Amino acid sequence: MVVLRCLAGLSLPGGQAPEREATPAVVNPALRSPLRQTLSLDGAWDFATDPAGAGDEATWFNPGIPLPNKTSLQVPGCWEAQGIGGPGNSTTVTPERSIRPLRGSYVGTGWYRKELTLPKAWAGKQVWLKLGGVHAQGWFWVNGAYVGHNACYCGAYKYNITDLVQPGARVVIAAKVRNDVPSRKGLMSWIQRFGGLYRSVELEATPALLIDDAYVVGDLDRRECVVHVRVRSVAPGGPGAGDATLQINVATLDGTPAGKATVAIPALAGPTVDVAAPIALDPVRAWSPEEPNLYRADVVLKLGGRALDGWVERFGVRKWEVRGGNFYLNNRKYFIRGYGDDYVYPLTLASPASRETHRQHLQLAKAYGFAYVRHHTHCELPEFYEAADEVGIMVQPELPYYGSTPSASPAKEYFQPAEDLTELYTHYRRYVSLATYCTGNEGHLGSPIDREVYQLAKRLDPTRLALHQDGGRNLKDNADFHQGPSVPWQAGTQDGSWPFTAHEYLNLATQEDPRLASQYTGAVLPPVKPEDFRADLAKAGLSWEWGVATLDAGNQLQRVYQKRGLEQARRDPACGGYIYWTMIDVGSPAAQGLFNQFWQPKASTAEYFQQFNRPTAVLAKFTPTERIVRSGESVSVEWWISAFDAKPLRGQAATWRLERGNQVLTSGQLPPLDAEAGDVRVIGSTEIKAPALTKPAKLRLVAELPGTGIRNAWDLWVFPPVTPQPEAGKGIGAVPSLYRALKGRYPALMEVREAAADGPDLQLADQFDSAVTNALAQGKRVLVLRLPGETPGVQLGWWAISKQAGTAIASHPAFGDFPHDGYVNELWFRLVDRTVSAPDTTWPAVEPLMVGRGSAGYLFHVFQARVGRGKLLASGLNLLSDQPEAQYLLDQFIRYAGSPAFQPQAALPQAGK
Predict the structure, then answer these.
(1) For the chain, which domains are there?
(2) Helix runs in 60-170, H state only
(3) In the structure, what pLDDT confidence band is assigned to residue 241 with cuts at 50, 70 and 90?
């Protein structure tokens, strides 16, 4: 029995009777028994705010007292999404804070009221008020009588209100809800401690002897399930168990009979009795993300042969465990392909109480290869778990703790991990998708409570794994597995004696997108307004097109690092998986998501992501790492397999091919391999000679296991060989430092010490100085190869924006036939170097050709301008190395700067200093 109690400091309303017993309830289930009579109270409720807290004394809970200035709100939902309080900034007290603009910003007390007529057919029945969920806390009345207070972590509860209502008569249900008090629910929206009845409210009629709860535990090895049923008798002097029985029929969801039992119910020694009925299963269809098979158990309570009550429970059969250093699912090694979920719902703020919405989201995650989700310091709605059961996604909910600190308050009375874990188990054990218990985030509950809670989890539910805290102090006596790094690591550096997953892995920070503003039609207002974005661009002297190009470039750079990071994790045989962080943009302090906040893909497609995020993947390790070579040079490939499909590979030979567009340039085959689930190893090596090319090209290396759908691909860039010509550099001057560096490549290059009217028309400089100013004043063309500003690098920030959040490159003659895609990717990793800031009074009007954005604002990597009679092309790229891409791009810049096409449109009054 679970009884909700009032939290310290929040007393019962004055003059009210003590609250009634609250027992666990299942609200809005996927399946219902036809023997149950339920009345949904979803829809419009009367609502009034109570900023002064006058409602208790004025007895707004009484049917005869009108709610002042009432409006209408929809249940389920929260009031912020329905505009209560008008636009304003969010209010949050979680350790990780984010201020966002909301459509409704009211913080305080609100009163709900619903009036209805109880069905006459419910005469002689027990009537229950079932509450799906209230946030942050709620107090409830029926016909003016106080029922109870709800301030729980994750459960739905019911109250017996039979004595307060009359069949055929009017019923008034009132609720006082506050969002200005602590919440036990954890990170259920880190934006706002929202207020409202966020799940369904129901009335239900049952007999006096009823099925109070039921759940099913599958046992794969024993090929059976155990149906657990709690029978309750609630009417004083009413029927006991007597000759009551439970008739149980189990079937697959397609209707195939799978088992049955008839169980006699023991006499009730108290108000309830628990029955456990083992039932042999035939057929046995295991549940897994790859095959999410489900059963249904129809339970009928009979008394004297007459059906009194019924219950339908959906369940799955799976075995989830740790053996040594590995995870096992259904007796085979398993690799966790997980993602993080921070409870981000911009339209509803509260998680939608909709199986269909969550099903759509989970199906999209599944299409990208994911099989596991971590919910950061919160527990999702039952509707989410029901969708996860159907789609095939394993779920890791978490208790509401950051270390030993409750997310709601540092007060001691909110630190109740054992009680929270028990509640989680009691309400969510029915969902086969629930895979792992976790007590919170990145810390430690303290000792010995860490071990005590772990042992409690094992006593309550040995069918699931337990993790102390994700990213926290996980030890072999308080957790079944531990966490690896949040960024890529070298294989062999982690403790592989027991399983580990990468915690909040990659977390690739980019900027938020103003183009999404029109989609923010619900609770959250646009976090970035197009007009503000344009204003920032105007200050930098940039167009809207440049701004959104840098946003797209950031998404493309995310795409590059997603592949690099997940593949590197999978090449460590000790790694048990990762939690990719995050699935959708959190938004503040950055947009880290694979998808935006509306679950719309950014740069990565499902086909692309599946290459390296499916159960079995072909992987590769390259020399040189950058995959950039000249014609005639070789790329060494060490081929790997990460095999975690249920079906082993037998005699399968991987093939590879090097493509240029639709043309296959060369191909090959590896020796046949045998691989069991859990094999992560090298399967062969290949030397691929770069083809002879007269112009650079981006090629595609494709590897696959024919007939399996297992395929992966990588970009390779090939440049023509450098063959210095005697005339190279003719008519070009260079300052001494550049002359010494470039003389070998440009034999005809002239050394220029001072600008002179009769000097070369094109001059190369390594910095802005008086010589550059003088050359421009004389009408020369000047190519500057070093900029004096920031070095943003190419690494996206972890969690927060770094200096690099996306760099876009113009389609412009300056780059010639350099094979770029319009954004910084691996081709540019060795090139990106110095920049100048925009806006910068030193550069009031230039024509940018390569623009980046990050924590330092907008940055120019390459730009051009007219300066008086002269023309300037300035680059901060590292073009003086002997790398193929550097040498070739320098050739293109020199060619362009000396050509008639060099016609900058922007004009500078003088060169920068």
Answers:
(1) 23-206 (2.60.120.260), 331-610 (3.20.20.80), 617-719 (2.60.40.10), 732-908 (3.40.50)
(2) none
(3) low
